[in-house]
Structure formats: structure tokens, C-alpha cells
Design a protein that fits this description.
Layout lengths: L2 H8 L3 H9 L6 E2 L5 E2 L3 H14 L4 H7 L3 E3 L2 E2 L6 H36 L14
Antiparallel strand pairs: 1-2, 3-4
Length: about 130
């Protein structure tokens, strides 16, 4: 498939797909005419990359763990190195702190809306203000 179709199927802009290629995260084949040709399996791979980036992992870490990704959402390390484990533990701690901060901010905004609305309208998470 061409880059436009991969972009449509993944929701990732073409420019970002080219960046993934520059970073060594995806490797399309090259046709005789020089066009990139993307294998079907790259649809899942691009979605995995996007999810890992959204989770806060830098591309250098993603590049290291990509060979261990079996399928969407699955990470498998047959023989992880101590350095890889330490890096992933640091990233996990960083993500946990980020999640905690987001949860505190969400709760503060919900409390603010509860006070401002005062009308029992549903909150963003489905709870009512009076819950």
C-alpha cells in the first residue's frame, strides 16, 4: 500500500509516517520507481508506535522494544538485558507519576464543575454532579 492509504487507515499524517521511517521505527519497501510500499502488518505497527508515543515513551526506547512486540498491545522480551529493564522501570515510574498528576487535575476540574454547575448535570465520566 502507499503512504496515503497507510495514513488513512491509521489516522497518522504522512509527514509523521516519514518521521517514523527516519527514526527506524518502520521500514517500507521501495518499488522500482522509488515509491514507498507499506506492508499490511505496518498498520498494527504504526498504531503500536502511536500508542507508545501517547504513553510518553521516547522514540529511542520504542525503537529498542519494537522487535519484541508480537501484536497490538503485547510486549515480549525473551531475554531482557538489565539496562533494558532499568530503562523500562524508569519509564513506568515516569508514566505513573504522569497518570497521578492527570488524575489529580481531572478531579480538581470535576470538583470545580460541580461547584459551578450545581445543577446535577452529568460529569465527563458519566457520574452526576450529585454523586
Amino acid at each position: 500500500m502507499r503512504i496515503g492509504e497507510l495514513s488513512e487507515r491509521t489516522g497518522i499524517p504522512r509527514r509523521l509516517l516519514r518521521y517514523y521511517e527516519e527514526q527506524g521505527l518502520i521500514t517500507p519497501e521501495r518499488c522500482e520507481n522509488g515509491y514507498r510500499s507499506y506492508d499490511e502488518r505496518l498498520v498494527d505497527r504504526v498504531q503500536q508506535i502511536r500508542g507508545l508515543l501517547d504513553a510518553g515513551l521516547p522514540t529511542r526506547i520504542i525503537k529498542q522494544i519494537l522487535p519484541c512486540l508480537d501484536g497490538p498491545g503485547t510486549i515480549h522480551f525473551p531475554d531482557p538485558t538489565p539496562e533494558m529493564l532499568a530503562t523500562l522501570e524508569l519509564e513506568l515510574d515516569r508514566m505513573t507519576r504522569r497518570i497521578d498528576c492527570l488524575a489529580r487535575n481531572r478531579d480538581a476540574i470535576a470538583a470545580y464543575l460541580e461547584v459551578v454547575r450545581g445543577d446535577g448535570r452529568p460529569m465527563g465520566d458519566g457520574r452526576s454532579v450529585e454523586a
